[in-house]
Amino acid sequence: MSIFNRQTVAAFLLGSTLVVGVGAFAVERHMGGTHAAIDAGAHMDRMLKHLYVEVDATDAQKAKIEPLVKAAMADIKPLHQQVHQLHAQLIEQISAATIDRTALETTRANGLALADQASKRIVQLLADVGDTLTPAQRQKLAEHLSQMHGRHGHHG
User: Fold this and answer.
1) Can you give the three-state secondary structure of 23-79, one letter per residue?
2) Cα distance between residue 47 and residue 70, in whole Å
3) pLDDT for position 42
4) What pLDDT does 38 receive?
5) Which helix (H) or strand (E) holds 131?
6) So what's the pLDDT on residue 151?
7) Alpha carbon distance 15, 23 (integer Å)
8) CA dihedral for 97, 101, 106, 109, sign (positive or negative)
9) First CA to last CA across the chain, in angstroms?
10) What is the Cα–Cα distance from 20 to 25, expressed in whole angstroms?
11) pLDDT (0 to 100) of residue 40
12) Nearest 5°: CA angle at 114, between 33 and 13?
């Protein structure tokens, strides 16, 4: 396998994991341990509180936003497990005695489909949250997301 192919595989794995593992479930994976789900929930609560401060959310807005975020995370959670399955499948495929390009392509396409599904759900969440905010608050949210992207964005 050429270096380009290894880099392509690594990029696929990283991209799929990052897209599908957003929010509390990315935290859960990162934290590990037996209390990861509890810690992920607490982390999500802290992130929401931070968001509320950033946009100066009212109590009524908070009451609408929290269930939206929790529903989105519940929708994304099954995708997280599927990414792990695809990762294991890809590792198995690239370590086989013979490379099955058709199987690799199927795995890649499945990973992109998962990423697309997660991306659509995240965009839906952003729209739903955006509907609860004023235009000025949405601008603050956009600025906050832009700053986060700058800190966690492209690394090379």
Assistant:
1) HHHHHHHHHCCCCHHHHHHHHHHHHHHHHHHHHCCCHHHHHHHHHHHHHHHHHHHHH
2) 12
3) 80
4) 52
5) helix 101-132
6) 65
7) 15
8) positive
9) 23
10) 8
11) 66
12) 60
The mean pLDDT values, 10 residues at a time, for the chain of 156 residues are 48 44 41 49 83 92 94 90 92 95 94 92 93 93 80 52
Cα distances (Å, whole numbers) of residue 13 to 56, 59, 65, 84, 108: 37, 40, 31, 10, 9
Taking alpha carbons only, the member of 55, 70, 63, 81 closest to residue 134 is: 55
Q: How far is CA 116 from CA 35, 49, 63, 82, 147, in A?
A: 30, 28, 28, 13, 24
pLDDT in tens, 7-38: 455 444 444 444 444 443 443 443 344 444 55
User: Torsions phi, psi of 148, nearest 5?
Assistant: -65, -40
Q: How many CB atoms lie within 10 A of CB 44?
A: 19
- In whole angstroms, what is the distance from residue 49 CA to residue 92 CA? 42
What are the chain's domains? 57-143 (1.20.120)
Question: How many residues are there in the chain?
Answer: 156
